[in-house]
Amino acid sequence: MSRPVTLTLTLLAGLALGYALGVTLPSVIWRRPLTKRSRRPSTLGGPSPTDLRVVNGVAGLIGNTPLVRIPSLSEATGCEIYAKAEFLNPGGSPKDRVALSMVETAEAHGELRPHTASCLFEGTVGSTGISLAMIARAKGYLCHIVLPDDQAAEKYALLEKFCAEVEKVRPVSIVNQDHFVNVARRRACVYDGQGDLDGGHRGYFADQFDNLANYRAHYQSTGPEIWTQTHGNLDAFVSGAGTGGTLAGTALYLKQHHPSLRVVLADPQGSGLFHRIKHGVMYAPEEAEGTRRRHQVDTVVEGMGINRVTRNLAQVLVPGLAHSHNGGVPGTPWVDDAVRVTDQEAVWMARYLVNREGLFIGSTAAVNCVAAVRTALTLGPGHTIVTILCDSGQRHLTKFWNDDYLRAQGLDVTFPDDLDFLGADA
Ligand SMILES: Cc1ncc(COP(=O)(O)O)c(C=O)c1O
């Protein structure tokens, strides 16, 4: 071969190699697993393929939320603390996943048909109602939401903007027929009695507490997303429970892939679940006669804490059902530990995070972050912990972020400079 031809071929080969490296290297670097050695992602990471996705309609915006590292909590504990930014869902919370899953499951079973006069009914403290109301608009349903009358005003306003019918009821115990869940179920029955499926319209009670499409949404999306985002490199998953869907679905998926992962329940004061996990009995000290201030769960936290085992929670707590997810083989528990979080700790954590990180979060996200720090302190430096930022503080301006309201509950509203209130060194 003549010299010029050889030179041209060498040049072409060089160009091809350069092009191939140029195309593949950035994606190799970007996809590098979060190993314990390479665990400081740069601030400006650049877009990932999911950031740049093009989607169809509002449903396409649900899920695939980023995982955000929280520098101050990580540095204070010597661990890596990450949180799933669920407040970035279009309806502002992980309940978008659940609402879509419940509606699509009902449609698949022929219980609902889009663009009929069918009406979605739900009893909720707000987030699921907002997500259902959003999906209802997108799919041509009506929506009727029943919720306690002591929730943050933003939630009622948002529901109305999504054209939902809003029914406020007094907060009472679940055994009372006037509990928001029981009222919603009744309203759906009455509406259903007037309609007929062939004519198109009917009443559908979504029933997030006991509808298994709830935990399945997290099993099918939240769990796999966390697994992909961490490349399986995580030591603990921390989450509170309202219906238990997030905890059950995500824990089941992650533990099936990583059996030694620690799943930790974050439980606000007034909830009985902490005792259920620690001692096998549902109990909250606030339930003791004479000390209770509120019906339901006695806390300023809106959306977490419960005093019964819902069907979704039963998937990970009731032995027979829990074993069914293990091929029927009794194994290690799906939920390994529980952390109790006081209202004061949640308030201080939310204030610490907005002050230090610019992260403006709601009350349940604050509970999760307190429990994530406690879990990190228990595990010791060098571990990776993932939790959930459920919603934004913007949804709680009139309650959890209202100083007068908090002071009236006997809570201190100062902004802590460090994490001393949790015994962490920040
Ligand atoms: C703001 C918020 N965070 C967390 C939760 C708890 O999630 P889950 O119902 O999956 O236990 C809820 C439940 O309604 C909620 O509204």
UniProtKB/TrEMBL annotation:
<keyword id="KW-0496">Mitochondrion</keyword>
<dbReference type="Pfam" id="PF00291">
    <property type="entry name" value="PALP"/>
</dbReference>
<feature type="domain" description="Tryptophan synthase beta chain-like PALP">
    <location>
        <begin position="60"/>
        <end position="391"/>
    </location>
</feature>
<dbReference type="GO" id="GO:0004124">
    <property type="term" value="F:cysteine synthase activity"/>
</dbReference>
<comment type="similarity">
    <text>Belongs to the cysteine synthase/cystathionine beta-synthase family.</text>
</comment>
<keyword id="KW-0812">Transmembrane</keyword>
<dbReference type="InterPro" id="IPR001216">
    <property type="entry name" value="P-phosphate_BS"/>
</dbReference>
<keyword id="KW-0472">Membrane</keyword>
<dbReference type="InterPro" id="IPR001926">
    <property type="entry name" value="TrpB-like_PALP"/>
</dbReference>
<keyword id="KW-0663">Pyridoxal phosphate</keyword>
<dbReference type="GO" id="GO:0005741">
    <property type="term" value="C:mitochondrial outer membrane"/>
</dbReference>
<keyword id="KW-1133">Transmembrane helix</keyword>
<keyword id="KW-0808">Transferase</keyword>
<dbReference type="InterPro" id="IPR050214">
    <property type="entry name" value="Cys_Synth/Cystath_Beta-Synth"/>
</dbReference>
<keyword id="KW-1000">Mitochondrion outer membrane</keyword>
<protein>
    <recommendedName>
        <fullName>cysteine synthase</fullName>
        <ecNumber>2.5.1.47</ecNumber>
    </recommendedName>
</protein>
<dbReference type="InterPro" id="IPR036052">
    <property type="entry name" value="TrpB-like_PALP_sf"/>
</dbReference>
<dbReference type="GO" id="GO:0006535">
    <property type="term" value="P:cysteine biosynthetic process from serine"/>
</dbReference>
